[in-house]
Amino acid sequence: MSGRPFFDDEDRDAAQRYVDGLYSAGAFDPVIDGIGEEDKILTAQVASIRDYMRQSEGTRSGQGTPLRIYPALVNSMSPNAFAGHRDGLHVCGLHIGLHAMVYEIACYVMTQPNLFPEIGDPSKEKAPTLPDGSLPAFWLIDHTVQKGKQVNPELADRFLPFCPQRYEYAVYLSLLMIRFVWFHEMYHCLNGHVAYLSRFVPSIRLNEVAIPGTLPLVELPSLDLPLPADRLYQELELDADRSALYAAYRTQFENKENIIALAGLPRTMRCRLALLAAYLMTFLFERINERQSTKVPLSHPDSHTRLHDMFRTTAIHLKQLDGDVQSVFEQVRADMGALAQALPILHDLQDIHGRYEAAAVQDRLDAHEANLTLLRQQIQMFGYR
Protein backbone atom coordinates (compact mmCIF):
# COMPACT_ATOMS: atom_id res chain seq x y z
CA MET A 1 0.00 0.00 0.00
CA SER A 2 2.70 2.49 1.01
CA GLY A 3 4.81 1.58 -2.04
CA ARG A 4 2.21 2.74 -4.55
CA PRO A 5 2.88 6.05 -6.30
CA PHE A 6 0.40 8.88 -5.90
CA PHE A 7 -2.34 9.36 -8.50
CA ASP A 8 -2.20 5.85 -9.93
CA ASP A 9 -5.12 4.20 -11.73
CA GLU A 10 -6.54 2.84 -8.47
CA ASP A 11 -6.63 6.32 -6.95
CA ARG A 12 -8.15 7.78 -10.10
CA ASP A 13 -10.90 5.14 -10.18
CA ALA A 14 -11.68 5.69 -6.49
CA ALA A 15 -11.85 9.46 -7.00
CA GLN A 16 -14.15 9.00 -9.99
CA ARG A 17 -16.48 6.72 -8.02
CA TYR A 18 -16.58 9.27 -5.23
CA VAL A 19 -17.31 12.28 -7.44
CA ASP A 20 -19.77 10.53 -9.76
CA GLY A 21 -21.53 9.09 -6.72
CA LEU A 22 -21.96 12.52 -5.16
CA TYR A 23 -23.15 14.24 -8.30
CA SER A 24 -23.90 12.12 -11.37
CA ALA A 25 -22.18 9.87 -13.90
CA GLY A 26 -19.70 11.95 -15.86
CA ALA A 27 -19.24 14.59 -13.15
CA PHE A 28 -15.60 13.57 -12.66
CA ASP A 29 -13.27 15.50 -14.96
CA PRO A 30 -9.78 13.96 -15.23
CA VAL A 31 -8.35 17.16 -16.83
CA ILE A 32 -4.98 15.48 -17.27
CA ASP A 33 -5.17 12.69 -19.86
CA GLY A 34 -8.82 13.54 -20.43
CA ILE A 35 -10.57 13.71 -23.77
CA GLY A 36 -11.78 16.81 -25.53
CA GLU A 37 -10.24 20.26 -25.87
CA GLU A 38 -7.64 21.06 -23.23
CA ASP A 39 -8.10 24.02 -20.89
CA LYS A 40 -4.49 25.04 -20.33
CA ILE A 41 -5.25 27.00 -17.15
CA LEU A 42 -7.09 24.05 -15.60
CA THR A 43 -4.34 21.68 -16.66
CA ALA A 44 -1.72 23.94 -15.07
CA GLN A 45 -3.75 24.12 -11.85
CA VAL A 46 -4.08 20.36 -11.50
CA ALA A 47 -0.51 19.58 -12.51
CA SER A 48 0.71 22.15 -10.00
CA ILE A 49 -1.31 20.90 -7.04
CA ARG A 50 -0.36 17.31 -7.84
CA ASP A 51 3.26 18.32 -7.55
CA TYR A 52 2.70 19.95 -4.16
CA MET A 53 0.64 16.99 -2.94
CA ARG A 54 3.47 14.66 -3.92
CA GLN A 55 5.63 16.39 -1.33
CA SER A 56 3.50 14.59 1.27
CA GLU A 57 4.05 11.19 -0.35
CA GLY A 58 5.30 8.70 2.22
CA THR A 59 3.80 10.52 5.21
CA ARG A 60 1.69 8.64 7.72
CA SER A 61 -0.85 9.58 10.31
CA GLY A 62 -0.10 9.19 13.99
CA GLN A 63 -1.94 5.90 13.73
CA GLY A 64 0.43 4.67 11.01
CA THR A 65 -1.94 5.07 8.07
CA PRO A 66 -0.16 6.12 4.83
CA LEU A 67 -1.55 9.16 3.07
CA ARG A 68 -3.53 8.72 -0.15
CA ILE A 69 -4.86 11.94 -1.68
CA TYR A 70 -6.24 12.97 -5.08
CA PRO A 71 -7.25 16.37 -6.56
CA ALA A 72 -10.49 16.03 -8.53
CA LEU A 73 -12.26 18.46 -10.85
CA VAL A 74 -16.06 18.32 -10.77
CA ASN A 75 -18.19 19.18 -13.80
CA SER A 76 -20.57 21.38 -11.86
CA MET A 77 -21.16 25.08 -12.46
CA SER A 78 -21.96 25.72 -8.80
CA PRO A 79 -18.93 27.47 -7.28
CA ASN A 80 -17.68 25.19 -4.52
CA ALA A 81 -14.82 23.03 -3.26
CA PHE A 82 -14.66 20.19 -0.75
CA ALA A 83 -12.56 17.63 1.09
CA GLY A 84 -13.87 14.10 1.60
CA HIS A 85 -12.76 10.51 2.04
CA ARG A 86 -13.60 7.17 0.42
CA ASP A 87 -11.97 3.75 0.32
CA GLY A 88 -8.85 5.01 2.09
CA LEU A 89 -8.45 7.93 -0.33
CA HIS A 90 -8.75 11.60 0.57
CA VAL A 91 -10.43 13.48 -2.28
CA CYS A 92 -10.01 17.23 -2.70
CA GLY A 93 -12.64 18.47 -5.12
CA LEU A 94 -13.00 21.74 -6.98
CA HIS A 95 -16.03 22.65 -9.08
CA ILE A 96 -15.49 23.93 -12.62
CA GLY A 97 -17.88 26.78 -11.81
CA LEU A 98 -15.50 28.08 -9.15
CA HIS A 99 -12.62 28.04 -11.63
CA ALA A 100 -14.69 30.09 -14.11
CA MET A 101 -15.76 32.58 -11.46
CA VAL A 102 -12.24 33.10 -10.16
CA TYR A 103 -10.92 33.61 -13.68
CA GLU A 104 -13.49 36.34 -14.38
CA ILE A 105 -12.76 38.13 -11.12
CA ALA A 106 -8.99 37.98 -11.71
CA CYS A 107 -9.52 39.44 -15.19
CA TYR A 108 -11.71 42.18 -13.74
CA VAL A 109 -8.98 43.13 -11.26
CA MET A 110 -6.52 43.70 -14.08
CA THR A 111 -9.03 45.82 -16.08
CA GLN A 112 -8.77 48.43 -13.33
CA PRO A 113 -5.92 50.82 -14.25
CA ASN A 114 -5.50 51.96 -10.63
CA LEU A 115 -4.63 48.38 -9.64
CA PHE A 116 -1.07 47.23 -10.38
CA PRO A 117 -0.36 50.35 -12.45
CA GLU A 118 3.27 49.25 -12.76
CA ILE A 119 2.21 46.26 -14.90
CA GLY A 120 1.96 46.67 -18.66
CA ASP A 121 0.04 49.64 -20.02
CA PRO A 122 -2.93 50.35 -17.72
CA SER A 123 -4.06 53.20 -19.97
CA LYS A 124 -5.41 50.56 -22.37
CA GLU A 125 -7.95 49.38 -19.80
CA LYS A 126 -11.54 50.61 -19.82
CA ALA A 127 -12.16 50.26 -16.06
CA PRO A 128 -15.61 48.68 -16.42
CA THR A 129 -18.02 49.21 -13.57
CA LEU A 130 -20.76 47.00 -12.21
CA PRO A 131 -24.09 47.85 -10.61
CA ASP A 132 -24.03 48.05 -6.83
CA GLY A 133 -24.31 44.61 -5.31
CA SER A 134 -22.89 42.81 -8.35
CA LEU A 135 -19.74 40.79 -8.78
CA PRO A 136 -17.94 39.64 -11.90
CA ALA A 137 -19.27 36.23 -12.95
CA PHE A 138 -22.63 37.00 -11.31
CA TRP A 139 -23.54 39.94 -13.50
CA LEU A 140 -23.81 37.81 -16.65
CA ILE A 141 -26.28 35.53 -14.90
CA ASP A 142 -28.24 38.43 -13.49
CA HIS A 143 -28.58 40.25 -16.81
CA THR A 144 -29.18 37.31 -19.12
CA VAL A 145 -30.86 34.55 -17.17
CA GLN A 146 -32.92 36.51 -14.68
CA LYS A 147 -33.86 39.44 -16.90
CA GLY A 148 -33.75 37.67 -20.23
CA LYS A 149 -31.79 40.48 -21.86
CA GLN A 150 -28.94 40.13 -24.30
CA VAL A 151 -25.67 41.41 -22.87
CA ASN A 152 -23.94 44.05 -24.91
CA PRO A 153 -20.89 42.23 -26.35
CA GLU A 154 -18.82 45.39 -26.17
CA LEU A 155 -19.46 45.56 -22.43
CA ALA A 156 -18.55 41.90 -22.03
CA ASP A 157 -15.30 42.45 -23.92
CA ARG A 158 -14.29 45.16 -21.48
CA PHE A 159 -14.18 42.59 -18.69
CA LEU A 160 -11.01 41.16 -20.23
CA PRO A 161 -7.78 43.15 -19.91
CA PHE A 162 -6.79 44.81 -23.20
CA CYS A 163 -3.09 44.95 -22.36
CA PRO A 164 -1.50 41.52 -23.06
CA GLN A 165 0.82 41.73 -20.07
CA ARG A 166 -2.02 42.63 -17.73
CA TYR A 167 -3.99 39.69 -19.10
CA GLU A 168 -1.05 37.43 -18.25
CA TYR A 169 -1.14 38.73 -14.69
CA ALA A 170 -4.88 38.06 -14.56
CA VAL A 171 -4.10 34.42 -15.35
CA TYR A 172 -1.40 34.38 -12.66
CA LEU A 173 -3.80 35.80 -10.08
CA SER A 174 -6.48 33.25 -10.99
CA LEU A 175 -3.95 30.42 -10.60
CA LEU A 176 -2.94 31.65 -7.15
CA MET A 177 -6.54 32.14 -6.01
CA ILE A 178 -7.45 28.59 -7.01
CA ARG A 179 -4.24 27.27 -5.47
CA PHE A 180 -5.28 28.79 -2.14
CA VAL A 181 -8.50 26.78 -2.43
CA TRP A 182 -6.59 23.59 -3.27
CA PHE A 183 -4.28 24.18 -0.31
CA HIS A 184 -7.26 24.79 1.99
CA GLU A 185 -8.87 21.49 1.01
CA MET A 186 -5.52 19.67 1.09
CA TYR A 187 -4.88 20.78 4.68
CA HIS A 188 -8.33 19.62 5.72
CA CYS A 189 -6.81 16.24 4.86
CA LEU A 190 -3.19 16.66 5.98
CA ASN A 191 -4.16 18.20 9.32
CA GLY A 192 -6.40 15.22 10.09
CA HIS A 193 -9.76 17.01 9.92
CA VAL A 194 -11.41 14.60 7.48
CA ALA A 195 -9.99 11.44 9.05
CA TYR A 196 -11.02 12.58 12.53
CA LEU A 197 -14.60 13.41 11.56
CA SER A 198 -15.01 10.30 9.41
CA ARG A 199 -14.83 8.23 12.62
CA PHE A 200 -18.22 9.65 13.52
CA VAL A 201 -19.73 10.13 10.05
CA PRO A 202 -17.95 8.01 7.38
CA SER A 203 -19.52 10.04 4.56
CA ILE A 204 -18.38 13.39 5.99
CA ARG A 205 -17.57 16.06 3.43
CA LEU A 206 -16.26 19.51 4.30
CA ASN A 207 -17.58 22.05 1.78
CA GLU A 208 -16.14 25.52 1.33
CA VAL A 209 -19.57 26.89 0.45
CA ALA A 210 -22.01 25.64 3.05
CA ILE A 211 -24.63 23.18 1.80
CA PRO A 212 -27.50 22.54 4.22
CA GLY A 213 -27.54 18.93 5.36
CA THR A 214 -23.98 18.04 4.39
CA LEU A 215 -22.52 19.04 7.76
CA PRO A 216 -24.41 16.77 10.15
CA LEU A 217 -24.08 18.83 13.30
CA VAL A 218 -26.85 16.92 15.01
CA GLU A 219 -25.43 13.54 14.02
CA LEU A 220 -22.10 14.01 15.76
CA PRO A 221 -22.16 12.61 19.30
CA SER A 222 -21.23 15.77 21.14
CA LEU A 223 -20.22 13.88 24.27
CA ASP A 224 -17.27 12.44 22.35
CA LEU A 225 -16.15 15.79 20.95
CA PRO A 226 -13.75 18.21 22.64
CA LEU A 227 -15.97 21.11 21.53
CA PRO A 228 -19.62 21.61 20.55
CA ALA A 229 -19.98 20.56 16.92
CA ASP A 230 -20.60 24.06 15.57
CA ARG A 231 -17.47 25.48 17.22
CA LEU A 232 -15.47 22.43 16.15
CA TYR A 233 -16.32 23.01 12.47
CA GLN A 234 -15.40 26.69 12.71
CA GLU A 235 -12.00 25.91 14.19
CA LEU A 236 -11.30 23.38 11.43
CA GLU A 237 -12.04 26.04 8.81
CA LEU A 238 -9.71 28.52 10.49
CA ASP A 239 -7.02 25.87 10.84
CA ALA A 240 -7.23 25.06 7.12
CA ASP A 241 -7.14 28.80 6.29
CA ARG A 242 -3.98 29.28 8.34
CA SER A 243 -2.19 26.32 6.82
CA ALA A 244 -3.21 27.31 3.29
CA LEU A 245 -2.13 30.93 3.76
CA TYR A 246 1.23 29.90 5.21
CA ALA A 247 1.85 27.35 2.45
CA ALA A 248 0.84 29.79 -0.30
CA TYR A 249 3.13 32.52 0.99
CA ARG A 250 6.00 30.18 1.80
CA THR A 251 5.84 28.77 -1.72
CA GLN A 252 6.67 32.20 -3.09
CA PHE A 253 9.04 33.41 -0.39
CA GLU A 254 11.19 30.28 -0.58
CA ASN A 255 11.07 30.25 -4.41
CA LYS A 256 9.22 26.93 -4.61
CA GLU A 257 6.79 28.02 -7.32
CA ASN A 258 6.32 25.17 -9.80
CA ILE A 259 4.57 27.06 -12.61
CA ILE A 260 7.41 28.34 -14.77
CA ALA A 261 5.78 31.60 -15.87
CA LEU A 262 4.89 32.50 -12.28
CA ALA A 263 8.32 31.50 -11.00
CA GLY A 264 9.86 34.05 -13.38
CA LEU A 265 8.18 36.99 -11.63
CA PRO A 266 10.03 38.96 -8.94
CA ARG A 267 9.62 37.31 -5.53
CA THR A 268 8.08 40.42 -3.95
CA MET A 269 5.40 40.48 -6.64
CA ARG A 270 4.68 36.78 -6.19
CA CYS A 271 4.32 37.22 -2.43
CA ARG A 272 1.99 40.19 -2.97
CA LEU A 273 -0.17 38.24 -5.43
CA ALA A 274 -0.31 35.22 -3.12
CA LEU A 275 -1.49 37.31 -0.17
CA LEU A 276 -4.04 39.17 -2.30
CA ALA A 277 -5.30 35.87 -3.72
CA ALA A 278 -5.94 34.44 -0.26
CA TYR A 279 -7.82 37.51 0.92
CA LEU A 280 -9.88 37.73 -2.29
CA MET A 281 -10.93 34.09 -1.98
CA THR A 282 -12.18 34.75 1.55
CA PHE A 283 -14.29 37.64 0.27
CA LEU A 284 -15.54 35.60 -2.65
CA PHE A 285 -16.72 32.63 -0.62
CA GLU A 286 -18.58 34.94 1.73
CA ARG A 287 -20.42 36.50 -1.19
CA ILE A 288 -21.25 33.12 -2.72
CA ASN A 289 -22.65 31.94 0.59
CA GLU A 290 -24.75 35.07 0.98
CA ARG A 291 -25.99 35.00 -2.61
CA GLN A 292 -27.01 31.36 -2.51
CA SER A 293 -28.69 31.82 0.87
CA THR A 294 -26.80 28.77 2.08
CA LYS A 295 -24.71 30.50 4.72
CA VAL A 296 -24.69 28.36 7.84
CA PRO A 297 -23.12 30.54 10.54
CA LEU A 298 -22.81 27.58 12.88
CA SER A 299 -20.46 25.73 10.57
CA HIS A 300 -18.43 28.51 8.91
CA PRO A 301 -16.85 31.55 10.55
CA ASP A 302 -17.98 34.87 9.08
CA SER A 303 -15.64 36.56 6.62
CA HIS A 304 -14.53 39.22 9.10
CA THR A 305 -13.43 36.57 11.58
CA ARG A 306 -11.61 34.64 8.86
CA LEU A 307 -9.85 37.77 7.62
CA HIS A 308 -8.93 38.91 11.12
CA ASP A 309 -7.50 35.46 11.78
CA MET A 310 -5.52 35.74 8.52
CA PHE A 311 -4.19 39.12 9.65
CA ARG A 312 -3.01 37.53 12.89
CA THR A 313 -1.44 34.66 10.96
CA THR A 314 0.30 37.20 8.72
CA ALA A 315 1.50 39.32 11.62
CA ILE A 316 2.78 36.40 13.69
CA HIS A 317 3.57 33.34 11.60
CA LEU A 318 4.37 34.91 8.24
CA LYS A 319 6.52 37.51 9.96
CA GLN A 320 8.62 34.69 11.39
CA LEU A 321 9.10 33.49 7.82
CA ASP A 322 9.54 36.89 6.14
CA GLY A 323 10.66 39.84 8.23
CA ASP A 324 9.42 42.21 5.49
CA VAL A 325 5.91 40.74 5.26
CA GLN A 326 4.40 43.88 6.80
CA SER A 327 5.40 45.95 3.76
CA VAL A 328 3.83 43.33 1.49
CA PHE A 329 0.69 43.41 3.62
CA GLU A 330 0.48 47.20 3.41
CA GLN A 331 0.64 46.97 -0.38
CA VAL A 332 -2.15 44.40 -0.39
CA ARG A 333 -4.24 46.69 1.82
CA ALA A 334 -3.81 49.40 -0.81
CA ASP A 335 -4.73 46.93 -3.57
CA MET A 336 -7.92 45.94 -1.79
CA GLY A 337 -8.82 49.55 -1.11
CA ALA A 338 -8.42 50.36 -4.80
CA LEU A 339 -10.51 47.36 -5.81
CA ALA A 340 -13.25 48.33 -3.37
CA GLN A 341 -13.64 51.60 -5.27
CA ALA A 342 -14.63 49.61 -8.36
CA LEU A 343 -16.50 46.89 -6.43
CA PRO A 344 -18.27 48.50 -3.47
CA ILE A 345 -19.75 45.09 -2.71
CA LEU A 346 -16.36 44.07 -1.33
CA HIS A 347 -15.78 44.79 2.29
CA ASP A 348 -13.25 47.58 2.63
CA LEU A 349 -10.10 45.92 3.87
CA GLN A 350 -8.95 49.16 5.44
CA ASP A 351 -12.08 49.24 7.57
CA ILE A 352 -11.75 45.58 8.57
CA HIS A 353 -8.09 46.05 9.45
CA GLY A 354 -8.98 49.16 11.43
CA ARG A 355 -11.14 47.01 13.69
CA TYR A 356 -8.46 44.31 13.99
CA GLU A 357 -6.87 45.88 17.06
CA ALA A 358 -10.20 46.27 18.87
CA ALA A 359 -10.33 44.42 22.19
CA ALA A 360 -13.53 42.58 21.22
CA VAL A 361 -11.91 41.28 18.02
CA GLN A 362 -8.77 40.16 19.83
CA ASP A 363 -10.85 38.46 22.52
CA ARG A 364 -12.78 36.57 19.84
CA LEU A 365 -9.57 35.49 18.14
CA ASP A 366 -8.12 34.42 21.50
CA ALA A 367 -11.22 32.28 22.09
CA HIS A 368 -10.79 30.63 18.70
CA GLU A 369 -7.11 30.04 19.50
CA ALA A 370 -8.00 28.34 22.78
CA ASN A 371 -10.59 26.17 21.03
CA LEU A 372 -8.12 25.19 18.32
CA THR A 373 -5.42 24.32 20.84
CA LEU A 374 -7.86 22.01 22.58
CA LEU A 375 -9.04 20.48 19.32
CA ARG A 376 -5.51 19.84 18.06
CA GLN A 377 -4.85 17.66 21.08
CA GLN A 378 -7.65 15.39 19.87
CA ILE A 379 -6.91 15.33 16.15
CA GLN A 380 -3.10 15.28 16.10
CA MET A 381 -3.08 11.49 15.82
CA PHE A 382 -5.05 11.79 12.58
CA GLY A 383 -2.73 14.33 10.92
CA TYR A 384 -0.05 13.24 8.45
CA ARG A 385 3.66 13.91 9.03
What does this 3D model show about the protein?
By secondary structure, the protein is of the alpha+beta class. The protein contains 14 helices and five strands. It has a five-stranded mixed sheet. Strand 3 and strand 4 (89-95) form a beta hairpin. The radius of gyration is 20 Å and the shape is globular. The protein starts with 8 loop residues before the first helix and ends in a 6-residue tail after the last helix. The mean pLDDT is 87.
Query: What's the helical proportion of residues?
Result: 40-55%
Uncertain segments of ≥5 residues (pLDDT<50)?
A: none
* Quaternary structure classification: single chain
> What structural class do helix, strand and pairing data support?
alpha+beta
Distance between the termini: 17 Å
Name the strands of the widest sheet in spatial order. Answer: 1-2-4-3-5
Order of helices and strands: HEHEEEHHHHHEHHHHHHH
Shape estimate? globular
The total strand number stands at: 5
| Share of β-strand residues | 5-15%
- How can the largest sheet be summarized? 5 strands, mixed
Based on CA atoms alone, the radius of gyration comes out at 20 Å
Figure out the total of helices. 14
The pLDDT mean sits at 87
